Amino acid sequence: MNKIQVDQIKKIKKLLSEKRKIVITTHNNPDGDAIGSSMALYHFLIKHGHKVDAIVPNMYPQFLAWIPGVSKMIVYENKSAKAQTLLAQAEIVFCLDYNAIHRTGSLADILERTEAKRILIDHHIDPETDSFDYCISTVDTSSTAELVYNFIQHLGGLEFIDKPIAESLYAGIVTDTGSFSFSCNNNETFEVTADLIGRGVDAQKLHRLIYDTFSESRLRLLGYAIHNRMIVWEEFNTALIYLTKADLKKFDYQVGDTEGIVNYPLNMEKINLSILLTEKEKMIRMSFRSKGKFSVNDFVRKHFNGGGHMNAAGGKSFTTIEKTIENVKAVLPVYKKDLDYVLSYKSK
Ligand code: 5GP
Ligand code: MN
After folding, report:
1. Domains in the chain, ordered, with CATH?
2. pLDDT at 348 exceeding the cut of 80
């Protein structure tokens, strides 16, 4: 955390020196980091006597339902009137794990209009800093959960990190690093994690709760996606999986069931870019993952209405699956050279 950010935290500390009405918000289709960082901050602020509510735009996946206190989160899609009242009354709104207000989907309109102070804690590239009163934003950090840990640390609050807070933070770190397989080249991430384990986190148990919770139909959907719905463009070191609404119905799709599917094509040695298309009601949701130096953030910003991180990004397409596949295929030749690399022990 740099000097400016530490300075921002000092100002926030002052703001928090009185009991406040606080709302914590996070992005649409919340993932482990969104929910973990939100719930950790929620418990921490409640311990300090603030009135705190956490609002998510839409439902979180079931594999996060064990996170302590998560059932208290207000799902905007289900309880919009209550959420609107809370946001109207809030003095402070924390904005966790998103870099632009529009990432909160249905919440965005109200967030844009709120008179509360907006505090950003996030690790995505190019935050829209003008939208926030305070910004704690760095792209070098594994997860927003790690940033929330740093935030608590700089507020002098480490002693308040009890087991529920530690577990929530751990959930954010472990999911956003793919179980410590990417975005974890900083020793700080491991130091924070070691501290969380020292505070009661049972890493093996949480791993099982997060990852070993598939229903039979979810595992079969994964098998089907790879076997029947994967296109490999070897010449562009790219693979794409697509899932139609009918596919999802066939496998009794539940929120979160497609999570992680996009990572599998990268297990192939020569595949450096993986894309998952999921057909939704009014658009095609696009997920991108890359290995090594190919920036999916740049790629998606340029072509597919979204962004994210260097090696993980999301986007949207407003046409059919077939046309979306064609559109992807059409832009790949431009990137042929950028995508053509193989990792060796010596390369980065
Ligand atoms: P996922 O593929 O898991 O939905 O998203 C991968 C990463 O990209 C996540 O860190 C997520 O926050 C980010 N992301 C997903 N969709 C969007 C988007 O539409 N815009 C931006 N800027 N980032 C996104
Ligand atoms: Mn994150």
Report:
1. 3-211 (3.90.1640.10), 216-339 (3.10.310.30)
2. no
